[in-house]
Amino acid sequence: ARRNVLITGCSSGIGLALAVKMAKDEQKRFKVYATMRNLAKKEPLEEAVGRRLGRTLEIKQLDVCDEQSIKTCVNSIPDRRIDVLVSNAGMGLIGPIECQTIDEMKTVMDTNFFGLVRLLKEILPDMKKRKSGHIVIISSVMGIQGILFNDVYAASKFAVEGFCESLAIQALKFKLQLSLIEPGPVVTEFERKVFEDGMKMDLSAADEETAEMFTNIYLKNYKQIFQSLGQSAEDVAEHTVKIILAENPPFRHQTNTLYTPMTTLKYADPNGDLPIDIFYKMVFHHDKIFSASLNFIKLLRWRSRKSFDLGKPSQ
Ligand code: NAD
């Protein structure tokens, strides 16, 4: 039977790519409810999905920061039946915390963390009743390992991961599945917006050394990291579909094998110093080594284009 899939944040990036990929599934296994906060931004999705619009895909309004909009959207779906929920909507924030307001930080937490909580408060009870459903969350490698000048963003994704780890135990009892998708850098609007905001940031509240570190080290390397390590939204969408179709979907799935060594550091040292040391050295002492490793990564990437295999999907 066709599975109803609700995806949040479909006006751009990973959400858009995933909605299109699932709507165009040759075996027509999905009915996609592609949602977005602002319906005025629906054109790129409409264009990409073409004649499938109204058949395998419908566009609906949903703001993850607005409980009523979630309720209205879910109520408009036949029998409120959502077999797969993809919590994708999110936003980034970079820079020294001295230069960010508490309100800006709260917006990030409200979108990335409470957005997921609001969705689940509305959708989880139905899934529990039916004893079926798959909750897929677009988290990040920054839900596992923090990175310089991403303090609040990483905190929001850690919150997501902690919440899901707790919920996963209960979900098992109700035969529900929960999967965290953890992309590394992805080249989307997100990356562009975050970078532009970083460039425009008023750094006057930070001391000189911090401001310099942000501008001349972090922002300088930012584009290079996305260019060498970055995946496309379509890549991440492909991984996500494989997880949705897997017979036994994993709780965690990293989409970028080039990034895995970084997150593995965390598990290699129970004291927690290893990843911090390595990131410190990469950022502050080994600019040349850093560039060299990026070049090496480019080479690896070129060689591993043939990508990944998660085994046989279920039919
Ligand atoms: P994106 O900016 O293209 O997409 C994010 C979408 O979320 C946008 O369409 C935006 O309008 C939407 N959104 C924001 N606030 C919303 C709200 N209140 N209600 C509904 N929608 C809202 O960027 P993306 O890279 O496709 O991001 C998708 C997800 O992937 C996010 O959760 C992000 O944290 C995660 N992610 C991104 C990267 C990356 O490098 N781009 C890496 C790891 C994880």
From TrEMBL:
Residue numbers binding NADP(+): 9-37, 63, 157
Taxonomic path: Eukaryota, Metazoa, Chordata, Craniata, Vertebrata
Gene Ontology BP annotations: estrogen biosynthetic process
Regions that span the bilayer: none
Binding site for substrate: 140
Xref: InterPro entries: 17beta_DH (IPR011348), NAD(P)-bd_dom_sf (IPR036291), Sc_DH/Rdtase_CS (IPR020904), SDR_fam (IPR002347)
Alphabetical UniProt keywords: Lipid metabolism, Oxidoreductase
Pfam families: adh_short (PF00106)
Organism in which the protein naturally occurs: Limosa lapponica baueri
PROSITE patterns reported in the protein's UniProt record: ADH_SHORT
GO CC entries: cytosol
Active site (UniProt): 153
Membership in a protein family: Belongs to the short-chain dehydrogenases/reductases (SDR) family.
Oxidoreductase in keyword set: yes
GO molecular function: estradiol 17-beta-dehydrogenase [NAD(P)+] activity
Name of this chain's protein: Retinol dehydrogenase 8
